[in-house]
Amino acid sequence: MAVPGGVITTVLGSCVATCIWDPVARVGGMNHILVAESGSGPTRCDAVGVNAMELVINGLIHCGARRANLQAKVFGGAKMIDGLSDIGQVNGLFVVEYLEREGITCVNKSLGGTLARQIRFYPAEGRVLQKSIAGAAVPPPRRKVGSADGNDLELF
After folding, report:
1. Which positions make up the signal peptide (predicted)?
2. 8-154: which CATH number, 3.30.1330.200, 3.30.360.10, 3.30.830.10, 3.30.710.10?
């Protein structure tokens, strides 16, 4: 949460930020989710993402927002490292589905791609500025196994 006239800022790669505000009460807040879900298959757990969403929503209600008035904008979820799993897509999908399930209108989103983003959220207004950060994507890890001399091993 922030004071009126304030700004909340973050930088995102595969992480996802949800900017949520009540335009009537003129209060807002933002979360930053590193990994929305843990585990896989039948042992998948979304407790981390749910907790991040509930903390910001409950904080807004505590500051005078009404749940029925809440609106959201979602950012991030980039694929930052080629050749690895796309955790950014999983994070983005989690937040979008969560908002739908909870009946919170998502008025805009900027998800995916391969660029990092800098986000500036003006919570009293619901206004968000996004700046793409070029060159932030990381190439796949290099793997050098063995050499002509013998036993070299380089995984990074």
Report:
1. none
2. 3.30.1330.200
